[in-house]
Design a protein that fits this description.
Pfam families: AAA, AAA_lid_6. It comes from Nocardia camponoti. Helices cover about 50% and strands about 10% of the residues. By secondary structure, it is an alpha/beta fold. The strands form three sheets. It has a five-stranded parallel beta sheet with strand order 4-5-6-3-7, sandwiched between helices. It has a two-stranded antiparallel sheet with strand order 1-2. The protein has a two-stranded parallel sheet with strand order 8-9. The longest helix is centred in the C-terminal third of the chain and has 23 residues. The termini are far apart. The structure holds adenosine-5'-diphosphate (ADP) and magnesium ion (MG).
Length: about 350
């Protein structure tokens, strides 16, 4: 059980003690008994907690692999610190209630909520707070039944799948339909509330969605709101951040932009950001996928032997092929078209 694991995993820093390797929660051969309560004058070295190493690794990766999100990263660090200290306190026999870890992630589409939820699950697992580093994602349709009597079994099934890990409820506000007083969503909320209170359920619930709608959802459900102490806000990315995300994604797939493609992608983003259904980093990923399609077609049509450089390079024509540039309503159209005409793709 998580509470057992939460107290283990530390190496004791005691004068004269040999420094054995740090221990991890669940290690059977940990040098000190994980259950041993420390004496009043013992000193506990947090840096020797291997769970802490896992957490540090997760936080370092979060910093390196996710652009921006400074406030989210800060909140994740705070949550990690809270759990590390909770573990340390238990080693001294200091009982307190298990910290509540239910959260809300508010932000537009493609701002990194699902990605951070996965990292969060790894971190909570490393710290022994949950049994498995898994996120089970659901939306209203996975929880609410069509007919009377169908909702509770559906919700319970979802809870069973998520048990021991994280239940991520995307667009959670759709659970609440005030205009329809007989809506089954209310039943889901009541079942969730019970499960969120149940420590043995070993479950973390994350409610995710657009900020304004989530605010209204929590205001209308104060019981729920009071059980969700951690609110992480995911802002829309700036143009510069989206460019950095694009570079990261392109490099991650062993591609690269040549300099004209980089300029073209900047123009693409400027135009795309003002258009409907813009979804932050997700739109960037989709744009790169489509650029890869155009690159592939361009390379096949070259009908000549290809170099490694051909295969890795996205050039401006691969970007300017986007319909964003051919939309007559877009201001970007004129500039972009001119660029396409004057900037043929380099051959290698
Ligand atoms: N800050 C970021 N840095 C790099 N990639 C990101 C960042 N935020 C999101 N992504 C990527 O964008 C895509 C969409 O992110 P996702 O977490 O699904 O967003 P959301 O759940 O908020 O809609 C994923 O491929 C994710 O890896
Ligand atoms: Mg998502």
């Amino acid at each position: 059980m998580a509470t057992d694991r939460a107290v283990s995993g530390f190496q004791l820093a005691r004068p004269g003690a040999t420094s054995a390797r740090p221990s991890r929660p669940g290690d059977v051969d940990a040098a000190t008994s994980p259950e041993e309560t420390l004496s009043e004058d013992a000193l506990l070295d947090l840096s020797l907690d291997l769970a802490g190493h896992d957490v540090e690794e997760t936080l370092t990766r979060l910093d390196a692999e996710l652009i921006g999100l400074a406030n989210v990263k800060e909140r994740v660090r705070e949550i990690a610190a809270l759990l590390m200290i909770d573990r340390a306190r238990r080693r001294f026999g200091l009982e307190s209630s298990r910290p509540t870890m239910h959260m809300s992630f508010t932000g537009g589409p493609g701002t990194g909520k699902t990605t951070v939820a996965l990292r969060m699950a790894h971190m909570l697992h490393a710290l022994g707070y949950i049994r498995k580093p898994k996120v089970h994602t659901v939306t209203r349709d996975d929880l609410v039944g069509q007919f009377i009597g169908h909702t509770a079994p559906k919700t319970k099934e979802a809870l069973a799948k998520a048990a021991g890990g994280v239940l991520f409820i995307d667009e959670a506000y759709y659970l609440f339909r005030p205009e329809n007083e007989r809506d089954y969503g209310q039943e889901v909320i009541e079942i969730l509330l019970q499960e969120m209170e149940n420590e043995r359920a070993n479950l973390v619930v994350i409610f995710a969605g657009y900020p304004d709608r989530m605010d209204r959802f929590f205001s209308a459900n104060p019981g729920l709101s009071s059980r969700v102490p951690h609110h992480l806000e995911f802002a829309d990315y700036t143009h510069g951040e989206l460019m950095s995300i694009a570079e990261l994604m392109v490099a991650g797939e062993n591609f690269r932009f040549d300099s004209a493609a980089r300029t073209a992608f900047g123009q693409y983003l400027t135009a795309r950001m003002t258009r409907p259904r813009f979804s932050n980093a997700r739109s960037v990923r989709n744009a790169i996928d489509r650029a890869r399609l155009r690159q592939a077609k361009r390379l096949v049509e070259l009908a000549r032997p290809l170099s490694k450089s051909d295969l890795v390079t996205l050039c401006d024509a691969d970007i300017y092929g986007s319909s964003v540039f051919s939309d007559a309503k877009q201001d970007a159209k004129q500039d972009a078209k001119q660029e396409v005409q004057v900037a043929p793709c380099p051959i290698d």
